[in-house]
Amino acid sequence: MQSQKNQLYGVLVADVVESRTQGRLRSPLNQKLRTASIAQLDNKLIRVPHAVTAGDEFQTVASRLESLPKLILDLRRRLYPLQLRIGIGIGTVEGPIRPPVNRVAGQAFEFARAAINQVKETRKYPTLTVFRSSRPDFDEVANLAYGLHDTLIRQITAKQWETIAIYLIKNRVDYTARALSIDISTASRNLKRGHFWQIEHTAVSMEHVIHRAFS
């Protein structure tokens, strides 16, 4: 078992793509993050509420390393239509983890900052998520998976995101259709065309990859 000093944490740093074109973003972003923090704390996805650090940037610490893939997906669906750049750092943390998280420091935060800078600098393909850790072999696999994943994320329409968001709550296509007052075939088609099954599979598979790499 790792000591407290050597324990690894997952830090998420995110900001909003093209935020300068969004007008007055701070208030709606804060509102969405408050709602997300309450739900994600209750669902044990995060250790502390999201903290806005500067402008449209915010950060948190995942409850467990294996929670990171679900946390990423949950944030994307909760903050839609805002599109997020997300940097994930896996490493040690200095001192106790408590709110506000922007006063906590350590290796994981440094890695997360380097990761989100990499997202901003990547030009070859439109990635939105980057992992950084002390394990280059893990980083290579995770970033390859999310590079492909984010290509699908960018193609999802508003109607498809709406169906995905409800499905993630209801967990059944028929219940999702009923909640949206659409027929089952339409709900199923929205999920399929929104690449939901591939996106869900990525999250589940990455949980296993993270567990194997860091346990």
What is the strand and helix layout of this fold?
Layout: E1 9-16, H1 26-42, E2 51-54, E3 57-61, H2 68-79, E4 84-91, H3 107-121, E5 129-132, H4 136-153, H5 158-170, H6 173-180, H7 184-193, H8 196-214
Parallel strand pairs: 4-5
Antiparallel strand pairs: 1-3, 1-4, 2-3
Number of H/I helices? 8
Which structural category fits the helices and strands?
alpha+beta
- Per DSSP E runs of 2 or more residues, the count of β-strands stands at 5
Main sheet properties:
5 strands, mixed
Task: Give the strand content.
Answer: 5-15%
Average of per-residue pLDDT values: 92
Secondary structure: helix percent: 40-55%
Please tag this protein with its features:
single chain; alpha+beta; Alpha-Beta Plaits; 52% helix
Describe it.
The chain is of the alpha+beta class and about 220 residues long. The chain has a domain at about 10-135: Reverse transcriptase/Diguanylate cyclase domain (Alpha-Beta Plaits, 2-Layer Sandwich), CATH 3.30.70. The chain has helices at about 25-40, 70-80, 105-120, 135-155, 160-170, 175-180, 185-195, 195-215, and strands at about 10-15, 50-55, 55-60, 85-90, 130. It has a 5-stranded mixed beta sheet with strand order 2-3-1-4-5. Helix 1 packs across helix 2, helix 2 (about 70-80) runs antiparallel to helix 8 and helix 5 packs across helix 6 (about 175-180). It starts with 8 loop residues before the first strand and ends with a helix. The relative contact order is 0.14. The model has no long low-confidence stretch (mean pLDDT about 90).
